C-alpha cells in the first residue's frame, strides 16, 4: 500500500522525535519509522543508561571528599542495585511508552521496519512480517538514523566479541578485568563507571592525552582522577591483534609496543560510523554509508528540490544528542516555513538556521572529575585567526564555593576572550560538580554577551559558579598581551 504524508522521518530517537513534534505543531502530517526501539541509541544504549550507571559512582566519590560524610559509607557499590536502577531508566528496554508518545502524544503515524529511500520523496518500508509499505512525502524526508560504534578491522576481532557502547551500557555482570580502548568521551566515562562498579580497568589511548579535543589540562585532570581511582591508564598505544580461541574465556590484547594484556572483556570506544549504508541513498545519487553534508537548515547538499534533510549524527556536525535535538528543532522550523510558503530567517542565530554547531557546542563528560566545555579551545580560536586572551583560574585555590563543595577541591577553569570583540569564545571547566556550570557559559556564547555586561551577572556566594567572578577578575588583572 502507499500513503502520503507531509513529512517522513527515518529514525525515532530523540532527534527524529523532535522533528516530528515541531512539524506536528505546525499542522503538518508526519510519519516516523524505526527498525529498532523507539527512543533510539540515546535512550537505551547511550546517554540514559550510561549516566544512570555513572551517577552512583560519582555520588560515592563526592561523599568521600567530605570529612564527616565519608565515614558514613563503607564497602563497595552494590552493582546489582545500580543495574536495577539503570533498567528502570531504560524502562527495561520496553519502548511502548515512547511509541505511545509519537502516536497519541504527537498524533504522528509510527511504522516499524527497515526504511529505504526509493527515489525522490519516496520511502519503502520492509516490516518485520516482510510486508512492503510505501510512503510519499509532500514536503520533506528527514534522515535521523544516528550512528553505530566503530570496531577496528584487526586480526582476531570477530572471535574476541568485543564490547561497544551497547554492551557497556546494557551488561548486568561486572567483568573482573576490562580493557577500554579509546580516549574520547565514551572511553573515559565507561572506564569511570566500570571501575566504580568493581572491575579492574585498563584504559588504552592511541593519543598522547585523554579527551584530546578539549583543552590539554582537562585530559591531565581526568587521567589523574582515573589513576587515583585505580584505573591503569596507557597513552600513545594501539591494539594490533586480539586472541580469544573459540570466542570464550580471557582475551589476549596485543599492543603496538610489544606488550600483551589479559582481560575478561574488551570495549572499543574509538569512534562512530553513520547509519546510512542501507537507507537507499544510491537511489537519489548519493553514496551509501556516507556522512551527509548539509547546509545550515540541514538540507542535504547535492539533492534537488529542497526535500531531503539530515539531522543528528547522520550529518556529522556534532555527534551529541543535545546538538542533534537542536538541529531537529531548527530544521523542522525550516521545513514548516517552506511548507507554508513563508520566508526563511537565514542570518546567523535566525529561527530557521543551525548556528550553535559552529560557535557554541556544549559537551560534558561525567568522569571523576567532571569535564565540560563550550565553544572554542585556545588552539581552535588561534587557528581561526582570532586575537585572543587565555584566562585561567585554579578553582580549588580561588573559589570558596568549590572548597565548600569538597575538601581539597581540585579543578581548573579557562575562558577564551576575543580581544577585538570583547566577547567570550570558549569556556572549559574540569572538577567535581562542574557539569551544571556549563549552561551559563553556553548562554554567554550564544547570546554573545559583552565582557563588561558579564560583570553584572552576580554569582551567589558560596557556590562553584563564583568561578565566573574569578575568571572576570583574572581577565581584568592580567595584561592582554600575555
TrEMBL record:
Its cofactor is FAD. Signal peptide: none annotated. One of its GO terms (biological process) is 2-oxoglutarate metabolic process. FAD binds at residues 51, 145-147, 313. Residues 361-468 form the Pyridine nucleotide-disulphide oxidoreductase dimerisation domain. Binds 1 FAD per subunit. Keywords: FAD, Flavoprotein, NAD, Nucleotide-binding. Disulfide bonds join 42-47. NAD(+) binds at residues 182-189, 271. GO terms for molecular function: dihydrolipoyl dehydrogenase (NADH) activity; flavin adenine dinucleotide binding. Residues 5-323 form the FAD/NAD(P)-binding domain. Belongs to the class-I pyridine nucleotide-disulfide oxidoreductase family. This is Oxidoreductase. It comes from Mycolicibacterium agri (Mycobacterium agri).
